[in-house]
Amino acid sequence: MLTVSKDLFGTGKLIRAADLTLGPEACEPLVSMDTEDVVRFEVGLHECGNSMQVTDDALVYSTFLLHDPRPVGNLSIVRTNRAEIPIECRYPRQGNVSSQAILPTWLPFRTTVFSEEKLTFSLRLMEENWNAEKRSPTFHLGDAAHLQAEIHTGSHVPLRLFVDHCVATPTPEQNASPYHTIVDFHGCLVDGLTDASSAFKVPRPGPDTLQFTVDVFHFANDSRNMIYITCHLKVTLAEQDPDELNKACSFSKPSNSWFPVEGPADICQCCNKGDCGTPSHSRRQPHVVSQWSRSASRNRRHVTEEADVTVGPLIFLDRSGDYEVEQWALPSDTSVVLLGIGLAVVASLTLTAVILVLTRRCRTASRPVSASE
């Protein structure tokens, strides 16, 4: 009997039992309830292609657990790594497998757009406490990216910022393929509908700032370990009440309903339908955009009240792979340092010996001259 925790990576994100198999013959787990926290395999020691080795003090049965995540439904993304975990059954002993990761020091990249009337739209990666910009754009699957959208108004009248649409792509081009929609329908954070906990932060720090989290992911069957997130930001007057076109809505799984950052709850009902129409009063506001599609032209950046901004790349590290790099790199670095110190010591001793020899020769050569005088 083999029992596997659904929190396989220790990140709090549960894996699916259907993504697990055991051994070279890909034996499937026992049928379990979705509410259970573990996945169980019940196989014989000689089944599933397991191998056996006899040592002096033990019988060792070897196999591996394979986690091969597949996209859910019609999505094209996965949020966990493919992993092959070796397993050995030793009698009477047991072992375990653990991993760590190295952290690169790349600085995050962001783009900022300036509009005609000096409105500045920005989208930044933030630390988990929201107090500072994230120093490194690296993530592991299971982490959450903290994103902060801002509008710097200067001397402009007070404005309220909204994230109208967001799409993730493997390149900075928002029309690239594959892609994954994060925010849609004029402010519905649709990424939170699936197995993610993505949501807008409530309350917002101010009308000119909107914060939200996105559970990180990578595209299935794509070797690139990075994504870019492009968001269409827009503003309204701060005194204007939120409506179906200007809103920030998150999905609550416990209540199975949408809720807004501010404004009446019914402005989020259109998120369920996937069609947030144009309220009648918004027709009198020419700056409000009725629809924004992925094929929209980038030359709309000159419009004062809206802009497309991109943050990225978000770089994903493979936990097991980076652990191997770390384990191999550390001995190599240590060897280089020790070799350098050894060469320095040898050079110093050689130089000292040469100086002593020359000093003795000079003293020996000077004695006959003194005697003849």
From TrEMBL:
GO cellular component, one term: extracellular space
Pfam families registered for this protein in UniProt: Zona_pellucida (PF00100), ZP-N (PF23344)
Keyword Nucleus assigned: no
Residue intervals passing through the bilayer: 336-358
Keyword hit for Cytoplasm: no
Gene Ontology terms describing biological process: binding of sperm to zona pellucida; blastocyst formation; egg coat formation; humoral immune response mediated by circulating immunoglobulin; negative regulation of binding of sperm to zona pellucida; negative regulation of DNA-templated transcription; oocyte development; positive regulation of acrosomal vesicle exocytosis
MF-aspect GO terms: acrosin binding; carbohydrate binding; identical protein binding; receptor ligand activity; structural constituent of egg coat
Coiled-coil boundaries: none
InterPro entries reported in the protein's UniProt record: ZP-C (IPR055355), ZP-C_dom (IPR042235), ZP-N (IPR055356), ZP_chr (IPR048290), ZP_dom (IPR001507), ZP_dom_CS (IPR017977)
UniProt membrane topology term: Single-pass type I membrane protein
Residue ranges of every copy of the ZP domain listed in the record: 1-256
Keyword tags: Cell membrane, Cleavage on pair of basic residues, Disulfide bond, Extracellular matrix, Glycoprotein, Membrane, Pyrrolidone carboxylic acid, Secreted, Signal, Transmembrane, Transmembrane helix
Protein localization: Zona pellucida; Cell membrane
Matching SMART domains: ZP (SM00241)
Modification(s) after translation: Proteolytically cleaved before the transmembrane segment to yield the secreted ectodomain incorporated in the zona pellucida.
Family statement drawn from the similarity comment of this UniProt entry: Belongs to the ZP domain family. ZPC subfamily.
Biological function: Component of the zona pellucida, an extracellular matrix surrounding oocytes which mediates sperm binding, induction of the acrosome reaction and prevents post-fertilization polyspermy. The zona pellucida is composed of 3 to 4 glycoproteins, ZP1, ZP2, ZP3, and ZP4. ZP3 is essential for sperm binding and zona matrix formation.
Domain remark in the UniProt entry: The ZP domain is involved in the polymerization of the ZP proteins to form the zona pellucida.
Oligomer status and interactors: Polymers of ZP2 and ZP3 organized into long filaments cross-linked by ZP1 homodimers. Interacts with ZP1 and ZP2.
Name used for this protein in its record: Zona pellucida sperm-binding protein 3
Gene that produces this protein: ZP3
